[in-house]
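ok trying again, last paste got cut off:
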Amino acid sequence: MKSLLFTILLVVSAGALRAQFAFDTSAAVKNVPGLYSILITKHDGLVYSHYFNGGSAETLFNDQSLTKSIGAILIGIAIDKGFIPSVDEPISRWFPSLKTDTDGRKATITLREVMNQASGLYHEDLTRLGYYLSLDDPSGRVLSAPLAGEPGKAWVYNNAASHLLSVILTKSTGMDTRTFAAKFLFTPLGITTFEWMKMRDGFYDGSGLLSIRLHSADLLKIGSLLLHEGKYNGQSIVSGGWVEAIMQPTVIYPAGWGFHSSTYALDWYHAEVDGVKFTYGMGWGGQFLVVIPSLSAVVVVNESVADATAIRQSVNFQSRLFPLLLAELRN
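nice, full thing came through this time. structure:
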């Protein structure tokens, strides 16, 4: 019932939004030229929707590494439908060359370890990102290169390994990642317009380096799934068990960035601010999808992806804007 109300209220409540939130006059909002959107729902009602600096409800925003978090939901759906046995399946199932690699550790790497950014696989050099993106077979490069670390031991953010998830989805389901997402996630959520780019290997980007592009309001729907045990409009889109695995992971790693003391698992972050726990996806430049179960709230932020301002924008949201926003939600 709650997820049905979400659709209704998201449409009708836009005309009854609060005239102003306290943070509207804060420098954390007013002096950020790269800030494009802030949307908030509480108890499935849209309580705040504002676009800035040329952003609009029609803009398809570059969601960067939110691509990974959306991909995690797709992996869960594939597990639900029997295409993938489990998150603890060795990825050598899809990449048999790992079974005969001279480094026997590669054959033990699991899907979970890839999604936890703890695979130990080769990772791209961000200072030479053009090299990685120019590869005709980026997955082959990741799999054949010497391991960069011990599988399962440490969190090392790895865009290159994350792209393997899109390859695995395609190999497992017989559908490309975009088609699978449209059929089993986006269409049931009423998401009809989006963009998704392919890597040079012909697989849709699973890393966020080329990125999915969505409307900010459509990200709210994805957050709603996590609030409602994988259901939307009464329809189960992804199992409650997978949502629980995302929201309450059993294997976690300290994250190297994000909110203070964040942990990471299954391509989502977890943190606590002012006593409030939340789960969030984060992309370069300040793309945020924040799910706050205790407040029945979802927060979406889209910002510029320009390298010159990206880190500053992200830190501004985490340290200045989010505490103000959280205080409003607690009122």
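cool. Residues 63-209 form a domain with the Beta-lactamase fold (CATH 3.40.710.10). The first helix runs from residue 2 to 12.
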